Amino acid sequence: MKWGVIGIGNMGEMLVQAWLESRMVEPQNVVLHNRSIYKAEQIQQIYPSVTVVSDPISAAKQVDILFVCVKPLSIHPLLGDIREHLTEEQCLVSITSPYSVKELEQLVPCQVARIIPSITNRAVTGASLVTFGERIKPIMKSYLEQSIKHYSKPIEIKEDITRVSSDIVSCGPAFFSYIMQRFIEATCEETNITKKEATMMMSEMMIGLGKLIEDGHYSLETLQQKVCVKGGVTGEGIKVLEEEIGNMFHRLLQKTHEKYAEDKREIAEQLEV
C-alpha cells in the first residue's frame, strides 16, 4: 500500500520519520505534499525514494491511505479540493481531535479514521489514539492497527473522550516537559547545581522512570510507594506537592476543553456554509 501525507508540520514530519525508521513502510511507497515544498524536500534528501508532489490532488490520486496533517480549519477547504479524487477503497486519516470521524465521513466518499499521534512516536514508542468511521472495512481496520504497532501502541477510543485522551497522549509530553524545566530552574535557584548537571540528571531520571513502567516493575502508584519512605525526605516533598498542586490539573483540562469547544464551533460554522 502507498501512504500519503498532506501537511509536513511538526506532527506530519514526525509521523513520516517514525514510519520510515520503524520500516513500517518503504520510502518508495510514501507520497508527501506540503504548501511550502521545501519541508517535504528535506525529508526526500534523507530518503530519496520518497515522492514529493506539488499539489494535494496529486497526493490524493496516488495513495491508498492519506494522512491529513493540517490545522483543523484548513481541513474543510482541503477536502473540498480533493474530494472528487478519492475513491471508496482509499482511507482518509485525520490526526486532529476537533473533527469527528462522523463529520469527516460527510465530507469524503472514502473510508475514514482518526489517528492522533504523540511526539513520543518519534522514538518508535508511546501511544496513538484511534477512532474508526462506520465505513471502515475490516481489512483496512486490521491493516491500520497492525501498521501503527510498528511505531506505537494503538489505543481505540470513543468520541466522548477524544479531548482528554489527547491531553494525556498528545499534549502530555509538552505539559510534563514544562514541569520538569520548572523543577530544573528551581534546583538551580535554590542550590549550587548547574543547569547542565540538573538537566542531565532529570533526563536520565525520566528515561529510567519510563523503563521501570515499560518493563512492568512498578505501576505509577507502587513506584511512588517504593520511593516515598514514611518520615523520609521524599515524603516531605510529596506533602508540598499535595498542598501546592491543588486544582491545577483540573484547570488545565478545563482550558484545553474550552479551546476544543471553540474549535468545534468554528468547524460547525464551516460545515453549515
UniProtKB/TrEMBL annotation:
Keywords: NADP. One of its GO terms (biological process) is L-proline biosynthetic process. SUPFAM superfamilies: 6-phosphogluconate dehydrogenase C-terminal domain-like (SSF48179), NAD(P)-binding Rossmann-fold domains (SSF51735). Residues 4-97 form the Pyrroline-5-carboxylate reductase catalytic N-terminal domain. It comes from the Bacteria. Signal peptide: none annotated. Residues 162-262 form the Pyrroline-5-carboxylate reductase dimerisation domain. GO terms for molecular function: pyrroline-5-carboxylate reductase activity. This is Competence protein ComER. NADP(+) binds at residues 6-11. Belongs to the pyrroline-5-carboxylate reductase family.
